[in-house]
Amino acid sequence: MTEERTGYRRSAKSPRGEARRRELLDKVADDLGTNGLVDFSLRRAARAAGTTHKVLLYHFEGAEDLLTQAVLQLRERRITRAVSAAAEQGGSLADRVRSMWPTLIGEESWVLDQAIGLAMYDAARYADLARSASRQYLPTLLALCPESWASERRTEVAELILGTLRGFLIEWRTSGDAAGIEAGFAALTRALEREERA
Asked: What is the DSSP annotation of the chain?
């Protein structure tokens, strides 16, 4: 890396540069939420952000970095809404998990489901899109579990919930089988209720 390039990156990390980066990322994430991942490019992202692709390259390592960061941003928005829904619901763990479902299938969720598909289609290139999902969701699911539970038990239940909800999302996107998902939720609810009583 040349000295000029190093300086170029260093200035992007200044408080002003970070603020500009967040602003650009918000606009690109909004575009992804509306238009999805198909045909994503630096040029499209630049149009959405009202800038040039060179400005985006000043703040991001490239198209894949920008795409990953925008997906993380969309996922964080969904997690925030899901946590809010669970907090409003209150009640049992099963009730709170069920209350998150409308958020998981609402608004920008189809883009995040596309990201999972992309990670499965080209794991070598986009594996971090899937790995980062677990890192983002697990703390929220762990926090839903009773504090009195041992750490290992909370982790096991959080992983169960995460895996089950992912399965429901794939089913929702591929078949739209609402009755089948409802049956699955009934089984998950019973399992979580038994776990809480144990």
From this structure: --HHHHHHHHHHTSHHHHHHHHHHHHHHHHHHHHH-STT--HHHHHHHHTS-HHHHHHHSSSHHHHHHHHHHHHHHHHHHHHHHHHHHH-SSHHHHHHHHHHHHTSTTHHHHHHHHHHHHHTHHHHHHHHHHHHHHHHHHHHHHS-TTS-HHHHHHHHHHHHHHHHHHHHHHHHT--HHHHHHHHHHHHHHHHHHHH-
